[in-house]
Amino acid sequence: VLSRPIICICNDQYTPSLRNLRQHATVLPVPPTITGRLATRLLEICRNEQMGASTSILMALCEKADNDIRTCLNTLQFIHCKHKDLSLPSIQSIAIGHKDSQKSILLFWKEVFKLPSSKKLAFTHGDTETLNGSLQSTQDQATERVDIQSNRFLSILSLANSVGEYEKVLQGLYENYLDIKLRDPNMEIISEIQDWILFHESALTMTMTSQEYILMAYLPFLSVAFHFLFAISSGHHVQYPHSQFEAFQTHQKNQQIISSLVSDISPSVRRNSSSISTINFIPLFMNVITPTLRPVNTQLYTKWEKQVLSNLVHTMISYNLTYRQERSPDGQYTYVLDPDLEELCHFTSQPQKRQLPYATKQMLAREIELEKVKVESKLDEEQNMTNQTSGAKKSTSKDSLQYFEEPKRLRVCLCIV
Asked: In this structure, are residues 308 and 293 in contact, taking their beta carbons and an 8 Å threshold?
């Protein structure tokens, strides 16, 4: 029996291929390494290997490799075999310093809503003058600002192309951008991003319906628009999108309730109703089946209250409605309408509608069951009467046929003699 633990390392624990393994494993999230701590450790390694390097150059390497330890070590080994000494131009010109793993979609959303640091842009794109802190003229600063904007543009565009899954990317961006605090009193940014979303949906629809796959090259630009309009320096706590899935589940549940209601109602009511008319009358119908009844014994009801109770019972039977007892998570018993029509007409933003007391619901459930038993017994009696009548008719016809057949047999016998 294997007693030692099996340690598995992954970059994204929410990968679909790890779904079954995650249920049986103990997940230990490891935070990313701090740039300064990693640069200090790399400096110690360079001194042991007799390789000239400084802390600023090693920090540039860490920023370029996204603090990936294995990538930094491989890059140092490659440069040491080629140049012996480590310099900033060698870090900026080498191509293997980039982390060779694909970013998860959750990290991509974080990159979209966060402004990159100026140091990372300098280390990645070779802005040595910014790193050295030299003074520049106004024209040079404007050129540098344009370079930074273009670097941000290309960085987000390349990440969007590598991630793919444009529909899921749009879901995450759409669900998280409204939580970002921006100074936009005239809602100009919101209006602009809505135009970008409309453009993205139009291009995606045209691609899927007309097979114009050349339009897929324009889909990643939506992420760039979100980055330039909503990116903040402190970043944003990104949540995985779940609103669409919850809305889909709610829609499926409501459709099942409506289908159950329409299929189980009596034929006399069903012939004058449809799914659309059922949806329209349910809010008003809830007021009909919640009259004002006293939670007392039915023997104490007045004549008018007994008539209201009788009409209510017959109405609920016609629509195959009843109250079912359920136990709540806190251990209390409640009566719930079955099928639960309250789910169709109650919204969280609206106040709770008037509910019948527990005793009234219990009394209604009992009266409905008694009325159903009476109807079934009446139908059984009618069926028995029908069977008895049909049996008597069959016996009478059989006797008459036998009476007319006997002379024929006699005549046949006489002819034979």
From this structure: yes
| Contact call for residues 284 and 301 (beta carbons, < 8 A) | no
Could you give the CA distance from residue 75 to residue 56 in angstroms, rounded to a whole number? 16
Given a contact cutoff of 8 angstroms between Cβ atoms, the answer to whether 344 and 279 are in contact is yes
Identify how many contiguous H helices and E strands the chain contains and give both numbers.
18, 2
- Cα–Cα distance between 117 and 190 in angstroms, integer? 25
Is the Cβ–Cβ distance between 62 and 35 less than 8 Å? yes
Residues 190/192/198/204 CA torsion (nearest 10 deg): -110
Distance CA 181, CA 236 (A): 10
Q: Which amino acid is at 180?
A: I
The CA radius of gyration of the chain, in Å to the nearest whole number, is 39
Position 345 pLDDT exceeds 70? yes
What is the three-class DSSP state of 323? strand
* Greatest distance between any 2 Cα atoms in the chain: 143
CA angle 66, 22, 26 (to 5 degrees): 85
Residue 359 burial by Cβ neighbours in a 10 Å radius (0-12, 13-18, 19+): middle
pLDDT in tens, 80-133: 887 666 777 777 666 654 544 456 788 888 888 888 765 555 544 444 443 344
Region of 243 on the Ramachandran plot (φ > 0 left; ψ -120 to 50 alpha; else beta): alpha
Residue 333 is given by DSSP the state E
> Does 204 have pLDDT greater than 80?
yes
Residue 83 C-alpha from the chain's centroid = 53
3-state secondary structure of 417: coil
Burial of residue 302 (CB within 10 Å: 0-12, 13-18, 19+) is: exposed
Q: What is the pLDDT of residue 384?
A: 81
Structure tokens at 71: 């990538």
Q: Which pLDDT value is given to residue 241?
A: 81
Residue 363: Cβ-neighbour burial (10 angstroms; 0-12, 13-18, 19+): buried
Which residue pairs, CB below 8 angstroms and at least 24 apart, start in 138-146? none
Q: Is the pTM of this model over 0.70?
A: no
